[in-house]
Please model this.
Amino acid sequence: MSADQWSNADWVQIPMNMMRMITRRSFMDTATKGVSIAIAAIIGLPAIGLGIASATGGAVKTQVKVGRVSQLGPEPVAVPISYVARDAWRESQQLGVVYLREQGGGKVEALSARCTHLGCTVHWVPGENRFQCPCHGSQFAADGSVLHGPAARPLDRLPVTKRGEDVYVEV
Amino acid sequence: MKAKVTRYLDERTGLGPVIRYVLDRRIPTGISWLHTFGSASLTLFVLMVVTGMFLALNYAPSIGDAHSSTAYIQHRLPLGGFVLGLHYWGASAMVVLVTVHMLRVFLMGAYKFPRELNWMIGVVIFGLVLVFAFTGYLLPWDNTAFFATRVGVNIVGSIPLIGGAMAALLRGGSDLGAATLTHFYAIHVLFLPALVTMLIGSHLFLVVRNGIAPLPTRARAARRGRPVVLGDGPGAMRTPGAELRPTDQAPVEMGDFFYPRHVLMDAVISLIILLLVAGLALLFQVPDSGNANPGDSTFVPRPAWYFLAPFQLLKYVPGPLEALATAVLPVVAGGALFLLPFLDRRRGRHPFDRPLVTAIGLASVVALVALTISGGLSR
Model:
């Protein structure tokens, strides 16, 4: 900028105008950011919410008849189960296995056969009175408690319902 | 801290000057609310991509599962009905906005030198938006989707010579079925997004490269025998003695900066349109006419509203001339739209300086609107 431009009589106005422009600009700058955040929220939040909410979907719990109280004793027995489950938007035939035992007084306990370490199916070793996981060697007692790691948590107990003599397990 | 991060990134990406070039460019004076529909369309595209991705988490593109998985999203999953509604109403909003954007560019003659290529890219994007809408319509696999798509594909099939092959390719066979759904799904979520993303990138690049077209000015001076300037940029034509007026000069030499004023306008319009779409999604459930049943002889197929015009047109065209409506008209109209910058080669950009082109364009819009309305009213 040359000196004679600065000698112009209007020069005092320049800082004033610039100040006004800067305020106006910074206002619009902030407004743009605010509106942009609102846009991102409308686009992103419902969709991401749906993504997270779909964790609540999937298979629906159902009651499966597994046998009669009189067939059970104090030692766990493997009961294969087969049932129709509502899995997200479709119904499908599911197969599985649960362990059942009668704890005395007609009280029935059901344990999931899924190892609490990484999900392998455990099997009952009758002579040694324990569950054995074939994958990483976890061992569980007849009541599901951990005898030997790496599993850190007892076998999952499944809710049991009795209707007369019939035993139902929620899977 | 912020300055440090900015510097770190800038040293490694060199993006700083690029962003400044895009944001701190001057745009012609008078660029205002009418110039926000393109960016609003872009916002809607982002909405469609994001909602589409999350809908796809729980959608199964197979004829046994498509309808029930859509219902599962809509009724079982929290927010599912809302996100489905955003996608559904967003599609309609997209068709409207892209059309309005194109109409604005048409009326302001912004497709002329040096922006012919960007007009053509825009016309292709417009066509692909319609293909997006057509393929997406089938995915819920309800009766409306099934029967409207059967009619739509058969219209393609009625095109002489190549129609049969095109329809078979689209359907993956001779009738709508399992392969049609996977074809439409793949086109909708893989082919089109990739294609349209590239085209949008080119479109935006050219907008920045060539600048936003200045507002067209009337070449009124000519009649009074004064010197005249027509067009803008290096190709501007002037009669001897005429000087380039500010609005006829290259965009860099005039007007306000793009950021923040115009970006704010873009953002405000985008937000308003998103709020409208969200309002529609909240108020109106996405219609579901039940799992597609090809054996249903009572179902009356209706196309989506944006396809009502061709649907209605076929009612007026006698059978032997059907190819005129299904093949000749779309090819001629689509071709004319695509090649518009080469059909209208005059420099004048103001709509009144090219009355024939303006009249044909407006007459086409009126015809489309009339056909759509009569299609919507008729049973």
In short: Confidence is low (pLDDT under 50) at residues 1-9 of chain A. Chain A is about 25% helix and 35% strand.
